[in-house]
Amino acid sequence: MKLRSAFKRGAAFSLAAAMVLSTAGCSQTDETKSNGDSKAATETAQKADSGKPYDGVTVKWALTDNAATATETKEMIELIKEKTGINVEFFITPTSKAGEMDKVLVSLMAGEEMDIVNRTPLQLEEFYKAAVLEPMDELAKAENYDMDTVYGGQTVKFDNQTYAIPAEKDIWLTYYNKKIFDEANIPYPTAEGWTWEKYVETAKKLNNPEKNVWGSFMSDDVACNYMLATQKGASPYKEDGSANFDDPAYADAMKWFFSLGNELKIQPNCLDLASGTYPYNSFMVNGNIGMYVYGGWVASALSDKVKYPRDWELGILPMPYPEGSEASSLTITNCYGIPKTSKNKAAAFEAIRTICENKYTLGYGRVPAKILTEDEAKAYIESSLLPKFKDDNLTVEDFMAGWFDNSRAYLGEKIMGTADTTIGQIYTEEGQLYGQGQKSLEDTMKSIQDRANEAIKEAQ
């Protein structure tokens, strides 16, 4: 995939020559110029000595009004100023509605000047396709900054160039309600060997229709339809770039996920989920669900007992994985890139580095994308995470196993590649037809495969 040519920059310069009529006039002009040059040189030297070469430079960060006024954002720009001397202003854009094109992307395509954008890798792919992102490799090289090592290979790359670096990861976990386990007289599960097979077995024991208790809950997020295939190592694309949904792993994953509600009845069925009877936050608000598998943002929500009051203790485990496969969890990252319209790319890179290396230290329960040593991770858990769950009796080991296990494979939760957004919509539509009994599994997977290939062909 080739990038479009960068935005052209042009500048018109007018030169004015002034005749100086007296030697005194020349002498005064030279002295003023000399003093000015000396002052500029001194300021440059002071910036270099202070370790803040971009001190006083202003960069524009594209955010919605709500995000720009958030306390965490305010603290982040103060930290950027403290560490780098860089001033941050906001380029405010409204949130795009469902089906609308990203308003920041629209503004960049129109040539609006911005220095920092943050999105998920899937969203940034749209920015890349529109040729509005600046590669970061040369900027990193100039600073002798090894992005892949610092972030454990989680940088966002397109055509072997780096276009964004991650600040935090949203890693899926298993959340469980200790009260329901206690009432069922079932021991709390442990992280070691926590497979989907053990998850289902445990959910069956917790399930109690008479008391309206569900053993399991997973929403109708499309990622759930194929997550088992992802964890088994299946790729959504073949080597030639065509769709790979005729791989049996995808049919097995589809069948397995919908069987949890439709056949095993350990969680609400497809119709209940589609109707909104059980919204995505049912685990947090109902108190009648034993286990819930979803993204790390749920932990942040559950730490807020004003918004989600509860009379039960929370337990956490890593995301289950298929028996016989390596331990893995789905994840999505929040990443930062530099638009081509930026006039301060080096300063923007310095500000982004500061965000990505330090955002987690602000105390909002973020899981950093940068690789932490075991001691660093434990210190962070003790200082920032455990205090948020002081009534749940969670331990350092609980968080280490769920979020900081460097031996575990962390896999992208979304399909990424040619026509990925369209394929996600196709998967959602066809999955619902299968889950609601309107299509056979064979016909469903054939439709996904055929429609995905059509979308790929149209996108090429």
UniProtKB/TrEMBL annotation:
PROSITE patterns: PROKAR_LIPOPROTEIN (PS51257). Keywords: Signal. Residues 26-52 are annotated as: Disordered. Residues 37-47 have a biased composition (Polar residues). The keyword Signal applies. Residues 1-29 form the signal peptide. It comes from the Bacteria. This is Extracellular solute-binding protein family 1.
